[in-house]
Amino acid sequence: MNNTPKITKGSNRRSPVVAPQYRPSKRLVTFTSDELNNAIAQVPLSDGTTTIIDAASYHKLINSGVTDQWSISSDGDNRVYVRCRHKGQVITVSRLVLDAPPYSLIRHKNGDHRDLRRSNLKVTMKKASLYGV
């Protein structure tokens, strides 16, 4: 559908521009429990997979203005990152979950970058992580 104004012959009036309709997310978040009976949210990602996050962390992020459209991207070295929009920027969700300082690294203890539960995340400084600390 073309949303540009049309000028009809013999008239200098423009027809109103139709604004695109807001489409709510078709990706539904599922709330369940993990193996330790902790409340978690399973959030659908852009590639059709899901990520898991503590339910409390998910609600905190959504209430702080994080969009519900999460995506997954790769750095080219077999590492994937779950990203979202927050305050006009694209940022990794794990960084927001831990409120990590700039220039720090987020480690995923079990190696699964789709597991964003606080118990699986650890903040390290770049120098320390280079030496396996």
Describe, in short, the structure shown.
The protein has 133 residues and is of the alpha+beta class. Helix content is 15%, strand content 30%.
Question: What would your notes on this structure say?
Answer:
The chain is built from 3 helices and 8 strands; from the N terminus they run E-E-E-H-E-E-E-H-E-E-H. It has 133 residues and is an alpha+beta fold. It has a 3-stranded antiparallel sheet with strand order 1-2-3. Strand 2 and strand 3 (50-54) form a beta hairpin. The chain is globular. 14% of the residues are buried.
Which structural class should the secondary elements be placed in?
alpha+beta
Instruction: Specify Rg, calculated over alpha carbons.
Output: 21 Å
Which blocks of ≥5 consecutive residues have pLDDT under 50? 14-24
The name of the CATH topology is: Homing Intron 3 (I-Ppo) Encoded Endonuclease, Chain A
The mean pLDDT is 80
Order of helices and strands: EEEHEEEHEEH
Number of helices: 3
Write down the overall geometry: globular
The percent range for strand residues is: 25-35%
Number of domains: 1
CATH architecture assignment name: Alpha-Beta Complex
Query: What CATH first level would be assigned?
Result: Alpha Beta
Largest sheet: 3 strands, antiparallel
Properties at a glance:
3-stranded antiparallel β-sheet, Homing Intron 3 (I-Ppo) Encoded Endonuclease, Chain A, 8 strands, alpha+beta, 133 residues, globular, 3 helices
Topology record:
Layout: E1 30-33, E2 39-44, E3 50-54, H1 55-63, E4 71-74, E5 80-86, E6 89-92, H2 93-98, E7 104-108, E8 121-125, H3 126-130
Antiparallel strand pairs: 1-2, 2-3, 4-5, 5-6, 7-8
